[in-house]
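Need the bound structure for adenosine-5'-diphosphate, inputs here:
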Amino acid sequence: MEKSNQTLTLIKPYAVEHGYVGPILARINKAGFRITALKYLHLSLEQAEAFYEIHRGKNFFERLTRFMASGPIVVAILEKENAVEDYRKLIGATDPRKAGEGTLRKLFGASVVSNAVHGSDSDQNAIRECNFFFSSLERF
Ligand code: ADP
Ligand code: MG
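Answer from helper R.:
Posting the output first, comments after.
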C-alpha cells in the first residue's frame, strides 16, 4: 500500500498557553513538513471525546479529554513523503521523559497527558483526523 503524505497534529493546551506554538511550528517546517491547513480551536468536552473516541474506556480517557478541552489548541495538517511515520519520529514517545533528545515531546512536553503535541498513528487515522477538523475549503 502506498504511504500517505499527510498527518494531523494538535498542539495541546499547555504548550499553547506557554508560548510554544511558534517554536513547535518552526521545528515542524525545519523537519521538512509543509503546513497545508492550520487553525486555533477551543474544543468542547464532547468534541474532545469524539476526537479521542478510540480511547474511550481507557483509564486516562477522562483526564485526557478534560485536559484537551481546558484551553485553546492549534490544529494543523502536515504534508511530507511518509508523513505519519516521520512525524511520529519527530514528536517522540508518548511520555516526554522517555522521548528522545530533540523530539518535540522532549523539548516541550510537561507530562504524559500534557505531552505538547498529538500525531496521527496510521494513514487511516490521519485521514479520519484531518477530515474531523478541516473541510476541503480549509486545506491548501
Ligand atoms: P500517542 O499520543 O503517543 O499516540 P496514545 O494514543 O496512546 O499516545 O494516547 C493518546 C494521548 O493520551 C497521549 O498523547 C497522552 O496525552 C494521553 N495518554 C496516554 N497514555 C496515558 C496515561 N497512561 N496517562 C495519562 N494520559 C495518557
Ligand atoms: Mg495515539
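Comments: Residues 123-133 form the longest helix (11 residues). Residues 53 and 140 are 27 Å apart (CA to CA).
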